[in-house]
Amino acid sequence: MPERERYELLEKPSYHFETERRDVLKLFAGGGLLVLIPHSAAAQESGRARGAWRGEPLPDDVEAWLHIGPDGRVTAFTGKVEVGQNSRTALTQAVAEELRVAAGQVEMVMGDTARTPFDMGTFGSRTTPTMAPRMRAAGVAARQALLELAAQKWGVKPETLEAADGCVRDPKSGRSASYGELTHGQAITRTIGKEQISRPRGESVAKINARDIVTGAHRYPSDITRPGMLHGKVLRPPAWDADLASVDLSAAPETGGATIVHDGKFVGAAAPSARAAARALARVKANWSTPAGPSNSEVFDYFKHNPTGPAEDAVRAGDVASAWGQAAHTVEGRYTVAYIAHVPLEPRAAVAEWTRDGLTVWTGTQRPFGVREELAEAFGLDIKKVHVLMPDCGSGYGGKHTGECAIEAARLAKATNRPVKVVWSREEEFRFAYLRPAGLIEVRGATAGSGKLLAWEFHNYNSGPSGLATPYDIPHQLIAFHPTRSPLRQGSYRGLAATANHFVRESHIDDLAAASGSGPLEFRLANLKEPRVRAVLEAATGRFGWGREKSGAGRGFGLACGMEKGSFVANCVEIEIEEASQRVRVRRVSTAFECGAIVNPDHLKNQVEGAVLMGIGGALFEAIEFEGSRITNPALSRYRVPRFSDLPELATVLVNRRDLDSAGAGETPIVTIAPAIRNAILAATGKALRSLPLAPSGPAGANKSA
Amino acid sequence: MKLRVNGKEVTPHDPDQSLLEFLRDDLGLTGTKYGCGEGQCGACTVLVQGSALRSCITPLSAVADREITTIEGLETDGKLHPVQQAFLDAGAMQCGYCTAGMILSCVSLLARHPHPDEAEARRALNGNICRCGTYPRILQALRSLSTGGRHA
Ligand code: FES
Ligand code: FES
Predict the structure, then answer these.
(1) Secondary structure of A493-560 as H, E, C letters
(2) How far is A115 from chain B (nearest CA, A)?
(3) Which domain, by its residues, includes A187?
């Protein structure tokens, strides 16, 4: 089970299928074969059939559709979205493999609230383990139905027939019929049940719409245009939680075609160009009151003293309190983790258009159905009147769960009676989107004389409960998460708190290894039970050549390992500290990653390496700076993200467990790079750094608390 | 004032615009992206007389009478430019939002240095951010070109 995570911004699903289904079914008016993928087996067995398609009752609770038209076209419909993690390709592969057609023959309709069934959202690495097998099952059910149709037609047994390349063949007679021929004039539904699906073939199918990307033809949300469209800008407060105390619009005459909208706390302008809208807003005089709060250096004490609820025990085992007395070595540490920003290269963007039928919004979001609800609530609309579409967008990393930009565009569109586009500036994205939570983590660990871990006490303040449980065999444990107030707006981020919790755990494990006179690898292997973690650790160290060279002045080797969301990762790292600048450079990274059976090796490698590179930013230099709730470095010139110059030599081992179900891979490979780098700095300098980022300006300038 | 975009002469009505705004909003050439507006990310890269330039910080007046090439202008007669093809072959993208800027920066680099070594390539591309971290693949695409094409 995935861990509960407060920062996923989970919302209660609310189903409104009856009417939606009717609309969706219009898409299939030409007949053909329709395969339904219910949310759960239970929903399917309950037999509550409310809708019907051409006389056939349909289950109540559908999460995806697969349709084969009389023209042979295969279309799958899912509320999942594509944010760069290549889920479009992976899901297409799932259908195509089972249906025995080329990937190019499957069209995947995604994240369109009018055409795809409800979906909670694309996060938590759930697409591969949950949606992909169900798409496979739909492929199997469709294939089976096609075999039966052909068998009927030819008066033979379906088992004697074969499906391949979009056709059913009878090897005995040599007859064959295309899927289109078979579904022609038919209107058949199937509902997936307990289909025997096969393991992913593990082929490196190229990204489905890659050609449109290299030619610039693909339309991202910020590229959408509508006839008569205006551009919108919103008057921003100095901080996300500031209140509009007063506003004076008198100096801002509606010139240059700009319309100014003032509604409660919202002040915005729509104009023929974004610049004209910004110009109009520049003349608005507003007074804001901003609540006081801690700065980035004070926030960790603030967390400690501002609980929002009781501590939540994640693990309690043995008797920690009495274990310390039996310890051979005890190490305590106070670790901190900074707020960081997702910095999706495409900022939030939305185009909103009102028609007589309601509101249509194109926007970049990981939760199109969630944004639909936000819009319905904001404008007091029936949810059926809101249509949200999510064109494949310029990434998210957990940062695009919310719909504020969609609401802003819709508010301005309503006032002007024209379609309006709002694209957040980079500064707005830094200051008004949410951040990965900062955190304070206090930890105490102890070993017994045997070199085995004995006790582990771990308190995470604010950062989050993901990845708290340790893969190590420790008899006495107390692990708790402490929810606290946060001066900044915070939410999901790739890997959630697993990055912070792994950073602290794996750093502290190195400190305990050192205290007990053991090496980082030996100590881990002596204390790790989980065979899948051991396997990636051995694969990464093997590939790296761990132990072949010794750390020395200015050069260090470090490693870390872990598991999260059903996948397993280990990194070995070589770092170098430049003498003059004291800058830390990551020279070499070996990563071993295992997520069960591999779906697409090339895309998996791409995800793993991308996560490692993104992780290097959070490990070494990314940090949001703030005074109270006001962010003071909201620009790429003041917030450094990894660039070509930061790219180490990468060696990536993909451990393929074809015997296991596939787990998601977009998040977990980010969780152990930071502690591996930290441990390499320790090996090179003897300095036990305990803050992320580790070295915004070299290890000497790092915020160390030992 | 006038300028040429992808081989066509165009006349802007508002010379105070940035080149990026003009391309995207007036000409509808949305392949050129906004990422930061301060010359830091390279998503808005276009070619001006064959050299990479950040269109977000370039006022239109600075490119009067120049020849601009955007990502939409790279393909000729339905055939991809070799750099576009190399990106496809290397799978050098995830979300693809940085891709247009990366491709044009590579075109510009290769025009100056047909065989850049790795250090030169990194230096030339350091102003282009790929937040998805596809840097190794972009270098791989470049390598396949500078060593004489993908069949080398
Ligand atoms: S948008 Fe021009 S450099 Fe970022
Ligand atoms: S592929 Fe997403 S930013 Fe480069």
Answers:
(1) CCCCCHHHHHHHHHHHHHHHHHHCCCCHHHHHHHHECCHHHHHHHHHHHHHHCCCCCCCECCEEEEEE
(2) 23
(3) 62-192
